[in-house]
Amino acid sequence: xxxxxxxxxxxxxxxxxxxxxxxxxxxxxxxxxxxxxxxxxxxxxxxxxxxxxxxxxxxxxxxxxxxxxxxxxxxxxxxxxxxxxxxxxxxxxxxxxxxxxxxxxxxxxxxxxxxxxxxxxxxxxxxxxxxxxxxxxxxxxxxxxxxxxxxxxxxxxxxxxxxxxxxxxxxxxxxxxxxxxxxxxxxxxxxxxxxxxxxxxxxxxxxxxxxxxxxxxxxxxxxxxxxxxxxxxxxxxxxxxxxxxxxxxxxxxxxxxxxxxxxxxxxxxxxxxxxxxxxxxxxxxxxxxxxxxxxxxxxxxxxxxxxxxxxxxxxxxxxxxxxxxxxxxxxxxxxxxxxxxxxxxxxxxxxxxxxxxxxxxxxxxxxxxxxxxxxxxxxxxxxxxxxxxxxxxxxxxxxxxxxxxxxxxxxxxxxxxxxxxxxxxxxxxxxxxxxxxxxxxxxxxxxxxxxxxxxxxxxxxxxxxxxxxxxxxxxxxxxxxxxxxxxxxxxxxxxxxxxxxxxxxxxxxxxxxxxxxxxxxxxxxxxxxxxxxxxxxxxxxxxxxxxxxxxxxxxxxxxxxxxxxxxxxxxxxxxxxxxxxxxxxxx
Length: 587
What we know:
Layout: E1 4-7, E2 9-12, E3 15-23, H1 40-68, H2 71-74, H3 78-84, H4 87-100, H5 104-120, H6 125-129, H7 131-146, E4 161-165, H8 170-175, E5 181-186, H9 194-202, E6 206-208, H10 213-216, E7 222-226, E8 231-234, H11 238-256, E9 275-280, H12 286-291, E10 297-301, H13 315-329, E11 333-337, H14 364-370, H15 372-385, E12 390-395, H16 401-420, E13 431-435, H17 438-442, H18 444-448, E14 454-456, H19 458-466, H20 484-500, E15 504-506, H21 514-523, E16 527-530, H22 535-544, H23 547-557, H24 563-577
Helix pairs in contact: 1-4, 1-7, 3-7, 4-5, 5-7, 13-15, 14-16, 15-16, 21-22, 21-23, 21-24
């Protein structure tokens, strides 16, 4: 087969070369097979046995993840078990076998297709996302019913694999943790999609938004994934393989250069000090984060404790998780973001009204204020963990001073409860605000009077300012962190924080891009938080420049009219001021 190159969105840096594993999302194709009347109980028993076998398989996966990772990720598969135990589905299949006198696999496949069609037509995003759970369970049951060859089962592969999928759900990504995965390739998604963030967390390259990669790539195809340029090369020629192999060697040698600075401060040549911290997705990352000399956790996303499970995490469960992270990172700070549930991230057991699934408005702090008992349980756990190290608390998606005040009313109530119960906590825990909607930027001066710190969340700030969906591949190309409006908003938030004497950090993905980090440094940011894999490169950048030079450069950047002009000037200046932080393969 001739070499083919697909162009997508670069989502996580690096290069991977290897064989593909296709996460098949195709519709089930099962030929009808008629049965005799006396075979009805036999087919029914086959169906029940397949359900039992599938249930055992899923529980084995849960146990393995619980052993290798944690219960939050194991609980993701509770949704799969719920599908298996759905009585209406079971009754539809058994009744269909008896009525139509057709094989168990055919009747089951038709029922599953009916469920998938029903979910596809629903308006709310959360229920539409349950299609992936139904799909996964359906494939497993059919595999057991039809005794298919298990060569397509990920657990049977020992070699390094490149995962190719239309999309990857959080549950699928969690099941791959600590597996032999070397890259991700997806048809959909953007630079800040769940797949992109997870890939960076696992330290593997990813290309997303390819639209039709699953149509061009076959199982076990040999491909090259270039996460820097957003390229996927199918059936590469020998010359292409050689070029990329050499590039990998150069990148590895280049990254090794940064090891010498991991215990040195992130300080410019003229003495401007920046705190470099990490965004935390999975608690298991903590050990490797500390080994990199990182100065704290700038964003601890807590949603994994809540998502894709049928129950709510208890106060004790949350406390133990937070305590582990806080103790491990001590004496460095851990910034815990309260729940950012809502939109596409809901808890199935809450029975949230349909109209509240809107991704734009009812999420994060609004969800928490509307569900005070859930919010207070989390606040209790965070406060209890605060005595085991240095904890900072921050609220997501604050639109203005009113929401910040409402959240603090509940926080103060929880403090009073703990005090009455004689449970220790840090009474002076710093409470900050995430600046990630335009209204927060416009009222930043008011928020800075009350908040202990700001954390600018550019992933959401960009999508809400530029009116795009960052998870939607049709608008992903419009996602522009260098847009003049975004830079001016960041500047305004930083100035408001400076005027009130509070520190300001930035925890969006743009902090890990060297040419954009240069601008953030010049704008006067105090802290940068990013995927751990990028920290040492950004530290080298900071240690290679003078703050005075970068500040003058940033003044020029703020006068530009387009994101493309910003990117071009930033990259040109980066090559002049800090050529030592770029490889010849940065493209």
